[in-house]
Amino acid sequence: xxxxxxxxxxxxxxxxxxxxxxxxxxxxxxxxxxxxxxxxxxxxxxxxxxxxxxxxxxxxxxxxxxxxxxxxxxxxxxxxxxxxxxxxxxxxxxxxxxxxxxxxxxxxxxxxxxxxxxxxxxxxxxxxxx
Length: 130
Description:
elongated
């Protein structure tokens, strides 16, 4: 085997390893931001429960918003507030360490992924929601 090929393979392995580590680190940070969880305060069992909760609530958020929001920007804060109340109640029922402030980033992300509302409307509505 030519020496240049061995050097190229070694270089490729190093670059691949660095990229994989960077992606895994980034995914971990994004997940923590979305859930609003503080690093080091959630055990693995709770983390699985939080992931399940986020997945279940993502679908619920989309269905609820499509059913209860007419598309008028002035109605958005009241609809968001009502659903945040329900999400907070569900989180407490499941004994998850999520309060209203921790649920907001997850909610915003879900609305963004569903494509519900314009970004400016969502931002204004969330500033009005306590």
